[in-house]
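Hi V.,

You were right to ask for the full record rather than a summary. Here it is.
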Amino acid sequence: MESRRSVLVFDFGGQYTHLIARRVRELNFYSVLVPHSVSLEEFLRLNPTAVIFSGGPSSIYVENSPKPEVEVFNYIVRSRIPLLGICYGHQLIASLLGGRVSRKEKAEYGLSVLRVLRDDPLFSGTPETQVVWMSHRDAVDWLPEEFVTLASTEYSEVAAFRHRSLPIYGVQFHPEVRHTEYGRAILENFLKRVAGLEPNWFVEDVAAEVISRLKKELRGKALTAVSGGVDSLTAAVMVQKAVGSDNIYVIHVNTGLLREGESERTLEVLRRMGFKNLFYVDASSLFLDRLRGVTDPEEKRRVVAKTFADVFAEKALELNREVGGFRYLVQGTIYPDRVESGATGKATAKIKSHHNVVMEAIPGLEIVEPLAEFYKDEVRRIARSLGLPEEVITQHPFPGPGLAVRIVGEVTEEKLRILRKATGIVEEEFRKAGLYEKVWQAFPVLLSVKTVGVKGDERSYEYALALRVVESEDAMTASFAKLPWDFLERLAERLVNEVEGVNRVLYDVTHKPPATIEFE
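Predicted structure:
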């Protein structure tokens, strides 16, 4: 991907930084997320055609606030590379080029009405008055004479600006957020009308390029673990197309923490996709045994990860003794996995913990990451183009430790039975109501408390379930779904009537932040 001309998104630590990069790709332009401190050498290697400075939580006048390297910023300006600053990026550009930024008495969070003050390519095809999403207290309050103000709001006199002679723009609002009425059009105007770019990113074509490259590069057998999620399945299919069905060996581990029938469905999908070398390991008893007495969420995650690594490595070593010749280890890593969170934004080749164990046991293995350049929505498009079943493509995200982190407290066989049954009912009802693909995630959580109830004229003392349903685009932020009351009532009735051991259902109405999507 390195030779492809790219739109560089500088990461200043904003919560929407990945969203900016995704929006650019949705418009069919290749975007790359880079740390705000990217070196000039790396900057030039990425072949930038345009640059976007993201938002961020800092104030530009605070000591050690994040800024680009001086030589990089000077190169952007001197070379007339089109530059757009968003929120903090907007303030940063103004400050670096002689403007003034100050803290305002009134913050501006949420929806604001933007008034476009003059015609400009950035706002082409959008109305004079439009709704935008704001999230700031600092604001640009003075610009040098070589700049012109393009738009304002009630609390932001300089809500958008441009340089008079250079392709440099700033917007105080967030065009990448759906709440900004004409955000997509504004980003598209910057890329097409200001930067003059031609679309160069078509996901299905790029995936075909990756497979073609893998065909040329890979010589030998590949090994992978497939969980049943869209990432690991898609990665396995891409490598299968590169090396052939005879040369890829797939291990599926039943942890006992999966949803009802998940192992069977995964193996069936793999068979339908033409995989020949499938190996199923039922380690459910081992996982349950090691989780006995563990209540801390992080410790649960560590136990599950360590146990999976042990089981996967043992099977991989067994296959290596029997078959031999393994040269590659396939990971379903996607682009956000490779970019560290926060303001660093540094791209890394992070090896998953269970793969580390295998690589230590089988020296010389090379990591292969067919999906390393793609976001989750792009992976789904690739999966569809490769012919994966729709139920795999559209399934909701599922945590790596599985149901273990959807049980608050200790994991037991009884609790897993209850939660597995409840999860199946929730998914069934959401699909039946046509709601499954309209929400980001919908799942029950088994709480550690029992509550008093009445069943069949008798007192009951059983577990409570919490129902978590959220709407989101990237899981960085999420809103609880405002579902119809009659649907919730019907769902609750089924759960208490059909799931033995449950007598109460609660609905979580907390956004992220402050809560996370998962309970643990």
